[in-house]
Amino acid sequence: MDPFAFYALVVDNNPLFRMNAQAILAKAGFRVFAAAKCEDALEILSKRGHGITLLFTDVEMPSGTMTGFSLARYCASGWPHIGILVAAGANLPKQGDLPAHVRFIQKPFNEAVVKHHLKQVLPEQQQPCRLRMALVQDQGVPDFGEPWRSPSDLRNEG
């Protein structure tokens, strides 16, 4: 793993939601690992958890496996440096389902919603540069993209 890269782990048994989350996170600057079930995610975490910055998991998993809620609690206790987002369409979290610092996203989600929640779960030093820049632009801060103009140019405009 590249020590200068930011890594995310996406866990969702639905390939369309998994690919959507992967694309959003890759666009935000993450290198993304993906798993279709929690057991695969646990294997990735056991091998690479020290370098992963973000866990983005669905709640519902195939029968006989742990839920995304359980995975979030396990990850929070074993890898406290990892920011965690949990997504679901129908299974809303109840009191105690999630650790305090975990954020919940309702499905279907879009890029803007995910970026907003990333800002909530990741300290600035754990945010890829592309994500930080997107967040600055979303807040309406000028990007200084205009060409430089001399004082005489400015006087001539008035």
UniProtKB/TrEMBL annotation:
<dbReference type="InterPro" id="IPR011006">
    <property type="entry name" value="CheY-like_superfamily"/>
</dbReference>
<dbReference type="Pfam" id="PF00072">
    <property type="entry name" value="Response_reg"/>
</dbReference>
<feature type="modified residue" description="4-aspartylphosphate">
    <location>
        <position position="58"/>
    </location>
</feature>
<keyword id="KW-0597">Phosphoprotein</keyword>
<dbReference type="InterPro" id="IPR050595">
    <property type="entry name" value="Bact_response_regulator"/>
</dbReference>
<dbReference type="InterPro" id="IPR001789">
    <property type="entry name" value="Sig_transdc_resp-reg_receiver"/>
</dbReference>
<feature type="domain" description="Response regulatory">
    <location>
        <begin position="7"/>
        <end position="122"/>
    </location>
</feature>
<protein>
    <submittedName>
        <fullName>Response regulator</fullName>
    </submittedName>
</protein>
